[in-house]
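Deviation from plan, reported transparently: 6-O-phosphono-beta-D-glucopyranose complex.
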Amino acid sequence: MKAVIFDLDGVITDTAEYHFQAWGSLAATLGIPFDREFNEQLKGISRSESLDKILARGDRSSAYSADDKQELAAQKNTEYQRLISALTPADVLPGIRPLLTELREARIGIALASASKNAAFILDRLELTHYFGSVVDVTAIRHGKPDPEIFLTGAVNLGVQPADCIGIEDAQAGIQAIKGAGMFAVGVGTPSQMQGADIVVATTAELSLRMLEAHFI
Ligand code: BG6
Ligand code: MG
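Because the crystal trials were delayed, the predicted structure below was used instead.
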């Protein structure tokens, strides 16, 4: 085990909840039904793909021009940014800061593989940026999760082989991306949401260097 590559939203901090709330507000203004079960499909995928899925659910896929859709995605992002502007270091999920500290002390590489264009801002608000040897630039990624490209790029940036990496995710699309990259996948959530993961933890509080080393194969 030479590196751990983290997802951000829902793994490092509970911003998955803020994405849910911001999409929920937009869906409500459009009169499109929106619930937590459907929201699972939006985890890990880009803003524009998420909007397309919401519009398809409301049978409105062709109701909006490209400009209209950009405006709707911007509305969601404005609400999302309002929610994340109040983040503080206290919003790092349990177990994550100790794990990052242990990894750094053990000289194990640390990278971020987030689909979010707000990722750098969030890491700064949480005062975690200094832990990361690489924050993959999502704007340079051609294929989003479930494609493995973002995780593979994290490994390249750290100079390690994929087989020596662990990926940690809370999204089904993310687990697929980690496995497609040939890495060991740790899922945060329920086994039914984290199909294909090598191990699943209910919460990040269960994560530690010792625990990862015990399971890594
Ligand atoms: C992922 C989230 O991390 O980032 C998705 O799981 C989100 O829900 C995606 O849509 C893109 O985020 P942003 O901040 O660029 O809209
Ligand atoms: Mg996530």
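The mean pLDDT is 98. We consider this an acceptable substitute for the interim report.
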